[in-house]
Amino acid sequence: MKSRILFFVATLMAAVGLQAQTLQCSPEKPVAGETVTLSYDQSKTILVNEKELKATALLLNNNPTGDRFQIEDVEFTAEKGVFKAKLSIPAHVNVFYIAFANEVDGAKDNNKGQGYGFALYQADRKKILPGTKGNIGLVKGRYASFANVERNPAEAFALIVEEFEATPSSRKDPVLLSFCAVEGKRNKNEAMVAEAKKMAEALVMDNKASEQDLFTAYQTYRVLDEKAALAPLTEKIKKKYPKGLLVRSEKMEALSMEKDLSKKVALYESLSALPFTAAEKPALQGVVSSLASGFLMKKDWPNFEKYLSPITDKIRKASMLNSAAWSLCGEGIVKEVSTADAVLSAKYSKQSIDLIKSLQAAKNRADIPFNKSPKQMKEDSKAYLGMFSDTYAVSLYRTGKYTEALEYQQAYNETQKFSDPETNERYCIYLEKAKGGKEAEAMLEKLITKGAASEAMKTQFVRLFQANNSPEAAAQRYLNNLELEAKANKKEELRKKMIDREAPDFKLRNLKGEEVALSSLKGKVVILDFWATWCGPCKASFPGMQKSLEASKDRSDVVFLFIDTWEKGDNKEKAAAEFIEKNQYNFNVLMDNDDKVVGSYKVEGIPTKFIVGKDGRIKFMSVGFNGTETLIEEVAAMIDLASEVKP
Question: What is the pTM of this model?
Fold first, then answer.
């Protein structure tokens, strides 16, 4: 028996990544509620030359209906060649992972995919806490990105089954059952499906099952599409709990699916008499947000404000206020808008900024989303504040407050390092209004040289240069020289960012059913663009990608592949094909239906583009979308640089 226990402990330690000595915890067998010391020896890791470490802790608990985890910052300091940190473990936590954010050539230290995890022990430091194996399984299957762990659904399932056997109460855990049901259905894993079904059946047969237990069984059957079992269970739950979890869930789902706004309002009003729990509040926030969004689309501002009022999620509320302000101000400074709309836009925009500033100043952990550490929230707040400042600047310009508009536009443009031509264009217009043509001309010259200017900015520069300096021909020649210098500078900047990483091979089918293998394209420059039909930035980047594709159409050594991944819905090919056809893009779309290719490239967000050189290795990685003109210029320069690499 003792040898079996020792074997199990060794297996568990391997599962959480404890067999590596790179990161150690003292005490070796930590107890929840105490402060531990972490020691990290970077000498044998890819972070060997890092002077500072950026890290967070993923702290997991057994909460079945609320927040299953929270993220906290970890402050490492160098002490005698070893980085050390103190971490206070909350009393309700049973396992934690340390995730390093530092990157070297696009890679992070994740302990060879296992991550750095630590199980917590009972007070005698002999046995691990109940729920530990289940939560480690969730990390490997659902929360991998938060822990810097390579996702492994099979290993996750094995750990969760062990938890079911070791801790009978865990068989009622809706989070664990949900994972088994969803993953089993998605991957056609019969073992997972059978386990989830067995657990659900046990809950239904239990005479002492609580409402939550029955609702967990209902959710499991629904995921598994067990219609025969679902119908009588639904009837049973509704009869026993006429205002219970299932009834409330169905009403919220009906409201979410309803397209008619007046019917949505009626459904929402019917919810007021139901006893919602704290765990249901986030879903209820989503429901009321859909109403506010509906009235935003209709530009019904009194009702927009009415349904915005109950929203307590500051980020959600601020984002909706920003969307309303952006709509009211004409989405820029080109369209005509009424004075009343401009004034209301400024009001909403200022409210959005005030909400984000209150988040930045938050000292209470409860005010920060569970899936963000305080530092991460501050960084996110900076990004939100910058984006909302851009909207507020437009609103201020619309109301004739040019100096204030310039101030807020500068706040945003500085977060972008003045790299976005669209917002630079507005900045220079405000600058000319607030401080005159001379200062605007000087700034335009800098931005054109930097390669961060739109065509309108170049026209503005020519006009100001003519007025302040010389005839039109001289100004145009000067502009041409600036553009040439900008392109050369951009190319040299990109050259410094070139990487040399393995490009995982893959075989995927395109929308025509043809198989495409990356290895078959060696000797060519290949542009891989990971995207999805629901991804706004992906879709915003496609006009620029279409132009980039057309610019290279005569080059037989350049290939563009658009990899549809993380797609939603049952018919992914249909969704992708309809989108491409509707927008008349000439893209070769490959379907990554099981999300394996995007996983092999370790993509964390889309759009993400990889430029593969003629030697079959990755030379550039680009994440996000910073404007069409910038995209076109960068893709062209990266193709040229990748073309210099010999096969």
Answer: 0.71
